[in-house]
Amino acid sequence: MDLNWKNMKKIMLLIAFAIVLFLGMQNIKPVVEFLQYIMRIAYPFLIGLGIAFVLNVPMRFIENKLFGAKKLQNNKIVQKIKRPASLILTLVLVVSLIFVVIFLIVPELVHSLTTFANYIPGVVSDVQQWIEDLWQTYPQLSEWLGTLEINWQNMVNSALGFVQDLTGSLLNSTISVAS
Fold first, then answer.
1. Furthest-apart CA atoms within the chain: distance in Å
2. What is the rounded distance in angstroms from the CA atom of residue 134 to the CA atom of residue 144?
3. Does residue 110 contact residue 171 with C-beta atoms inside 8 Å?
4. Within 13 Å, how many C-alpha atoms sit on residue 139's CB side?
């Protein structure tokens, strides 16, 4: 390898990177705290970029379809207002969509989950009756299950906890998607 200025510069940058990486690994806690601080500062900007990226798609569609006619392209007034008008129409569309989700879908979802939760006790009692009938019909099954050591209360509590967590996370996911 020829040791000209270009190669020396690459080697020095590689050595500097290795030193910085080594010092960063030796002091990982302050580095992580610094990166968290930078992320707290950059988070609103990243959210803004995400919103702008998402809103740009319908805004450009509205701009091209509504103001894209050949006879409107030569009109100076239309050219000046097409971008702001498309932005306003996009914002109205997104806000309307959010209201539809919040006021129509979320209450219906809550109603469905409440109805489902109301049916659980009836289903549990039906299953208990079916199990009692099964035990009376097949006493060997009852004896075999008696030899097993199963904590039924923990299993029922775990199942109910799972269903509650699932409905709660589903509701939170729906609200977060809507927001």
1. 93
2. 13
3. yes
4. 0
Q: How far apart are CA 60 and CA 82, in angstroms?
A: 10
Neighbours of 82 (CB within 10 A): 19
64: tokens are 């091209």
Residues of the chain with pLDDT under 50: none
**Closest by alpha carbon to 87, among 60, 108, 68?**
60
Q: Which two tokens stand for residue 22?
A: 């080594």
135 by DSSP, 3-state: which?
A: helix
Encode pLDDT of 152-179 as tens digits.
Answer: 778 888 888 887 787 777 767 766 665 5
**Structure tokens belonging to residue 115:** 């109805």
Q: What are phi and psi of 171, to 5 degrees?
A: -65, -45
Enter the tokens of residue 40.
Answer: 């707290």
